[in-house]
Write a structure and sequence with these properties.
The chain has helices at residues 23-30, 46-52, 66-76, 97-102, 108-117, 141-156, 160-174, 233-244; strands at 7-11, 36-40, 59-64, 86-91, 119-128, 131-133, 136-140, 179-185, 191-201, 223-229, 254-259, 261-266, 272-276, 279-283, 285-299. By secondary structure, the protein is α+β, with helices and mostly antiparallel strands. The strands form 2 sheets. Strands 5, 6, 7, 8, 9, 10, 11, 12, 13, 14 and 15 form an 11-stranded antiparallel sheet that branches. Strand 3, helix 3 and strand 4 form a beta-alpha-beta unit. The radius of gyration is 19 Å and the shape is globular.
């Protein structure tokens, strides 16, 4: 069969503490009558390389977590749009917020079936400092939560909501600190702010379903930003029930809006820690840009 009709499966065997590897047999069984190549990552950023060389494949399927999806997206975006494969997601990580964003079923069998019966749908992307992200990129306490999440995955073998809830509570109770930044949104004047968090999102959730921005729409051609003012530990804890219930209007420190371009600069006198689709990085200046309809993802027909 010609390459352009084939599917490429990229597998991260270490995702979700190694549990993603268990999904491979299920994918192989359901795709047994398809023409499929299977490739396994062996090092950080390997998925970027594999996806970069996927020109001509009909679909690239990711078996891994949001970090693996992040790498694959950055590889696919180096391919000319007329040759770029569709992206298909199997919810096999610890968070799976990329799947939530795209409306991919979290049931493994349903998600794999979507690879065969689904239709391609355009989704926006974001960039931060010239690196693409599919679901979220944030500066502030989120990055500390992600770092703690990575620790708990390794030491306590947690996953899903218990993993992210444990990491969030630890950071709030033991390491809550604000950041001083200058922010400019679209054509607005720069403002100096003291905040806990700047979360730029394409989807509505991160951290295994935490609805950080219920108004976000990954197909409206814009990104959304959530800014959370500096508040005390007690106030932060008091906001968690409203966050869980998606009653963000009750959180006085919470502010959200859509944008096309946003610049955030540290005024702390040093770099800030951030996360992009769960991957940690640091910078003193962050340039966010919207990429409307940047990628096609296979979704259920309904």
């Amino acid at each position: 069969m010609e390459t352009h009709k084939k599917k490429l499966v990229i597998i991260n065997p270490s995702a979700n503490s190694g549990n993603s590897q268990k999904m491979v047999a299920a994918v192989q069984e359901i795709l047994r009558n398809e023409s499929v190549d299977y490739m396994t990552t062996s090092r950080p950023a390997h998925a970027v390389e594999l996806a970069r060389n996927a020109a001509g494949y009909e679909t690239v399927i990711v078996i891994g977590g949001d970090g693996t999806v992040h790498e694959v997206v950055n590889g696919l975006m180096t391919i000319d749009s007329d040759k770029r494969p569709n992206l298909a997601l199997v919810p096999s990580g610890s968070g799976n917020d990329s799947c939530r964003m795209a409306g991919i079923p979290l049931d493994i069998a349903e998600a794999i079936t979507t690879i065969l019966t689904g239709v391609p749908k355009s989704f926006d992307l974001g960039t931060c400092n010239n690196t693409y992200f599919l679901n979220s990129c944030s500066v502030g306490i989120d990055a500390l939560v992600v770092a703690k999440t990575n620790e708990l995955k390794a030491t306590r073998k947690l996953s899903g909501t218990p993993l992210y809830a444990s990491a969030l509570l630890h950071v709030i109770l033991h390491n809550l600190r604000s950041i001083q930044v200058e922010i400019s949104i679209d054509d607005g004047e720069p403002t100096n702010q003291n905040i806990l968090l700047c979360a730029v999102t394409n989807g509505q959730t991160y951290g295994s379903g935490i609805a950080i921005n219920p108004s976000a729409n990954p197909t409206d051609g814009q990104l959304s930003v959530v800014l959370v003012d500096k508040v005390s530990v007690a106030q932060t804890l008091s906001y968690l029930p409203a966050l869980a219930a998606k009653k963000h209007e009750k959180i006085k420190a919470y502010h959200a809006q859509n944008f096309d371009h946003l610049t955030l600069r540290s005024t702390n006198g040093g770099p800030l820690v951030a996360q992009r689709d769960g991957e940690i990085f640091t910078a003193e200046k962050f340039e966010f840009q919207t990429i409307p309809a940047g990628i096609h993802i296979l979704v259920p027909q309904s």
